[in-house]
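Researcher: Here's the sequence for the chain we discussed earlier.
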Amino acid sequence: MASTVQPGGAATAVSPPRQDALPGLAVTDPSEVDVALPPPSLEALRSGAPRALQDALGALEQDRGLDALAGLRAVARAVREMERHAVRLARRDGATWQEIGDTLGTTRQNAQQRFCD
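Model: Thanks. This is the structure I predict for it:
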């Protein structure tokens, strides 16, 4: 874990991105949501998520529960990353935490905690 120095001399820990199952998809710590982060590889999401969903559906059709769970896990990771990116874009464009919470069907506090802590 690296650290950065904030104005005033306070050091904060910054988690490095971790690589997940979908190629080109770096999942970042949600606390870094307001920091200038590179966007996820939308092309990797565009190709990887549908493929993982098709794999999961195929596994379900063939009664292969563990394979279906693995595919669904990859889909869920992709959805979380797209959601984080959408929140970063919304915040950049001036959306309030209240608006984000309303859109996600949750409270302002829950949305802020989820994407900032």
